[in-house]
Amino acid sequence: MDPRELQKLALKLIASANPAEVRTAISRAYYATYHVGAEALEEMGFIIEKGPQGHKGVQHRLHNSGDPEISNVGSKLGDLETRRIDADYHLNDANVERQKTAEALVKMADNLIQKLDKLRSAPNRDKVILEIRKWERIGPSVKDKEDDRTMCTKKYKLHLRMSFLTEAEKFQFYGWGVIATIVICFRSGP
Question: First-to-last CA distance in the chain?
Fold first, then answer.
């Protein structure tokens, strides 16, 4: 399936004032952009991880492409993913249902997809490939690690918010699992 079909669906859904359709439009726009980015990177010979780490992998690779425009695409893809999470999981947050906000996000996704499509035949494509390969050899930057730590800290805090357990029970039940999660998060790259 062509991921651009997801973007076409997002454009149709955004015309509605229905909160469920607005939220779905944001989600489809993100996934369209993510899949176009993953597709472009795979065409350049990069292996995109499966699962949640693949999303960060696409963002980090684009962000570390050495091309300011493509780097911006990586950053904006991260922003769009955050908004997609709000749309899909934070159902009490009505801000994400604002039509103007959703329209702007879908339009942003459309713009990002166009830039990713241009990358396929860009004159600096080989340079972008070399820069990403260099980044992969060196490993994640301090900023990449900070982003991953922030994500892991949020997971840790979620475990500790389990109100039905006492503090001792939380540590006894989650202690080693949380420590293992944090260690894995800090050791794993994008």
Answer: 26
